[in-house]
């Protein structure tokens, strides 16, 4: 469980990030690329992006041996350039200690360019910047306008909640665990974060689907990046003749959702899709596991129907 400890001063220093921050959003997306969960919804997204990532982005994997990232990457910045500059301006001793921390187990060999980064090599910093830019252009740039739209909607929702219910009510909508001077997130990894007067920045992320991500660096406000959005991978606007939903779910599953204009049996679904009963049943099971349809049995009959989320994805 994540526990965030407030002082009285901290409650006056809670703010919602007014705009999305490109570097944390990029890092959240890269984390999601390596995450094993939600394979149905994110599997095709992962496969597409991993195939598209250029070789210039490959050094980023060297920064997270065993899935542990150095803290000097934890920056905000309202633009990509500002975020990259904040990374580059990290204190040399901080960079060295963090690289030593993530490679401390000795299980992963240290690549030469990481050794050079540890030594403060200007060329190693250029390798890192090229990798960040290459990853951004492939992963985030195509969907950045959508991230901005989603952030505006989330910011508006939060502002209205604060106006109607106060700060405590707004925090409770994110995680109902506010206890006097402590805010708890039960589904997060065990950790205690003491704000100690630094304040808290709430930053929605629209790629990461796990628990909250915390940036807790000395002399800086603590940043809580929490998963927001609709729970589906972001996709760029579909070009003419393309189907964005099929790109996420696969053509047959997208067609199956659209075919459920009203509850129907597996046999009816198979007939509408032109597939076997077994194939229709398998795809329906996958969509049911993702919360996009429900299945009910009455006697010998089985009927499938879209959930509210499934209906939102396939407006008639």
Automatic annotation (TrEMBL):
Matching Pfam families: HTH_20
GO molecular function term, any single one: DNA binding
Coiled-coil residue spans: none
Keywords: DNA-binding, Transcription, Transcription regulation
Record-annotated HTH arsR-type domain positions: 244-314
Official protein name in the record: Regulator
Source organism per UniProt: Streptomyces vietnamensis
